[in-house]
Design a protein that fits this description.
22 strands, seven-stranded mixed beta sheet, 22 helices, six-stranded antiparallel beta sheet, alpha+beta, elongated, Rossmann fold, 51% helix, Calcium-transporting ATPase, cytoplasmic transduction domain A, 4 domains
Length: 634
């Protein structure tokens, strides 16, 4: 509990004890004069209610009187004026209990993303000329500065490792508990915790542009973009509160006047009591508090899973998603080439074929060359390679250990007068010739992510009607990936502008009140991310474009998080609607009972504080996502 919450609890306990004590004393003591009894009950009332009175008076001065404090002040002061001292104290007492409960609930919601907020670094270690480390403000570190990150410290600024190896804990960013191994040459992002070795990192961004700053800014500003349900409640409260105040005023005076005109007793006291009860019942606390709290809880629960939602409006849109469109490279596939097949000719082993190709490609920086060298997996002795020639659109020729080696496409083999067999498997084929003889071929492909197929199944289980893939790759590659993952539809050979056209076509054909979400890597897909109803950035660690263009950012490259994000959004929206229906149903029922004199001030207390407590308890369910995590990994 905070100091303010503890103080509020103390005031509630003191006021409650005084009311009970006064009630007991007045039973055994002789009847006291009314002014004395009033003064005695004013003590506990002011102990717990002075803040409410002060806020009500301030609201009247600012010409904004119609809020819950004004309703409580009028109702309780009115109860005292009618001589119902215990009920007046009880109303303000239970109101403050509800406010305390709500404050604690909001605090608990904020704690759910406190681990994310803790990623803000306090300092960066810069090595001085004497070799000693100096702690400086991250804002003062210039791009290109080498900083030192010791074991147990957070990486303060994005950069590239220039010395050292370690394991990084990325849980605060991605929700993933498995450490990430890094070494010299790897990029690191701010917010990760260095777990083992000492790292020296050359910064590539200023602190204000680093991942940690962008994430913190995103989460802190998420409440600025309100969902339709929140805007409805705001508009509703603006009309509802003045309406019930005027309604209570009419209830207090119109019926007695009518009774007087009819020649019957007016009973002003009874009708004023009903009006005060009406005011207490009408307080919209349950709606005004629980709805934003539900969305805040949903955003907090999602962020704890490594899913950053830029505002409750996007959480609401995500809940209504029926079509999910994917980019292929970097989203459903790893976006890096890998040798997926080795097919040597007779008399050649797998090892000989891969070694010859890797040595021939040793000087090339092409992604296909890099994948072949990665498959070789050994230190390449470049002294064995001479006469390297890169032939644009064909491949590479070189001499390896004095023997001519060629690695490239079928056109290169034809150029050398060799016959290359057709390959039925999907991917890029690299044919290899050694000393004038055809030696075999390597199959290079962009590998599907391990969880992609699982993610598509999870989306179907979550109620997604259609899954579509858009890619610039050739038809055979797109068809193979689509079949492997079980997608409903795919479109191949697309340029960035073509992807926007496809999104427009899909949006035009979607069902009413159904949203379309586009999932991309956020680097090349900014136009499509912006055009979709919901833009989701995949694999966004360190990607500025993703964080800027997308509405939802997944802080790792696990596509299964999409289904989890949708389940969190749908549960949050369900909780919001439950609270709206429950609160309004109870309120209107009790208002009717209060107007006809069948509800007392104690009923009013339940209708106000009781409904608020139940609604807030229900809202806090949005924070818990463990069961949803299990459902999203079928």
């Amino acid at each position: 509990m905070t100091k303010k919450q503890k103080k509020s609890l103390q005031q509630i306990l003191i006021a409650l004890a005084l009311v009970i004590l006064l009630k007991l004393l007045l039973r055994v003591l002789p009847a006291l004069p009314t002014p004395v009894e009033l003064l005695l009950y004013l003590i506990p009332y002011l102990v717990v209610g002075k803040d409410v009175l002060r806020k009500a008076i301030k609201g009247v001065k600012n010409r904004q009187p119609f809020d819950e404090c004004f309703l409580m002040a009028v109702a309780t002061v009115g109860a005292f004026a009618l001589g119902d001292y215990v009920e007046g104290c009880a109303v303000i007492l239970f109101y403050q209990i509800g406010e305390l409960f709500q404050s604690v609930a909001v605090g608990k919601s904020r704690q759910s993303i406190s681990s994310l907020m803790d990623i803000r670094p306090d300092y960066a270690n810069v090595e001085g000329e004497d070799g000693k480390l100096e702690q400086v403000d991250p804002d003062d570190v210039e791009v290109g500065t080498v900083i030192v990150v010791q074991p147990g410290e957070r990486v303060p600024i994005d950069g590239v490792i220039v010395e050292g190896t370690s394991a990084l804990n990325t849980a605060a960013l991605t929700g993933e508990s498995l450490p990430r191994d890094v070494q010299t040459g790897d990029e690191v992002i701010s917010g990760c915790v260095n777990m083992t070795g000492l790292l020296k990192v050359r910064t590539t961004k200023e602190f204000g542009e680093s991942t940690v700053s962008k994430i913190l800014d995103l989460v802190e500003n998420s409440s600025m973009k309100k969902a339709r349900a929140e805007n409805f409640i705001t508009r509703f409260a603006r009309v509802y509160t003045p309406a019930v105040c005027y309604g209570a005023l009419a209830l207090a005076f119109l019926p007695p006047i009518v009774l007087l005109l009819m020649g019957q007793p007016a009973r002003f006291g009874d009708w004023i009591y009903r009006a005060l009860t009406f005011l207490v019942i009408s307080c919209p606390c349950a709606l005004v508090i629980s709805i934003p709290l539900s969305f805040f809880g949903g955003i907090g629960g999602a962020s704890a899973c490594g899913i950053l939602v830029k505002g409750s409006t996007y959480l609401e849109e995500l809940a209504r998603t029926g079509i999910v469109v994917f980019d292929k490279t970097g989203t459903l596939t790893q976006g890096t080439f890998k040798v997926t097949g080795v097919h040597p000719a007779d008399g050649i082993t797998d090892e000989q074929l891969v070694e010859a190709a890797a040595l021939a490609e040793s000087w090339s920086k092409h992604p296909i060359s890099l994948s072949i060298k990665a498959a070789y997996g050994k230190e390449i002795d470049t002294s064995r390679v001479t006469d390297v020639e890169e032939l644009g659109g064909h491949g590479v020729t070189a001499k390896v250990d004095g023997k001519p080696v060629a690695a490239g496409n079928a056109r290169l083999m034809e150029r050398l007068g060799l016959s290359a067999p057709a390959v039925s498997e999907t991917g890029t084929v690299v044919h290899v010739a050694i000393d004038g003889r055809y030696a075999g071929c390597l199959l290079i492909a962009d590998v599907v992510k391990p969880h992609s197929a699982e993610a598509i199944r999870a989306l179907k289980a979550a109620g997604v009607r259609k899954t579509v893939m858009l890619t610039g790759d050739a038809e055979p590659v797109a068809k193979a990936v689509s079949a492997q993952l079980g997608l409903d539809e795919y479109h191949a050979g697309l340029l960035p502008g073509d992807k926007v056209d496809q999104i427009e076509t899909l949006i035009a054909a979607k069902k009413s009140k159904e949203n379309l979400a586009f999932v991309g890597d956020g680097i090349n897909d900014a136009p499509v991310l912006s055009r979709a109803d919901v833009g989701i950035a995949m694999g966004a660690l360190g990607s500025d474009a993703a964080i800027e263009a997308a509405d939802v950012v997944l802080m790792d490259d696990d596509p299964a998080k999409i289904a989890l994000a949708m389940r969190i959004a749908r549960r949050t929206l369900r909780i919001v609607y439950e609270n709206i229906v429950f609160a309004l149903a109870v309120k209107f029922a009790c208002l009717l009972l209060g107007a006809i004199g069948m509800a007392s001030m104690w009923t009013a207390i339940f209708a106000d504080v009781g409904v608020m407590v139940i609604a807030v308890l229900n809202a806090t369910r949005a924070l818990y996502t463990k069961d949803l995590v299990k459902k999203s990994h079928p």
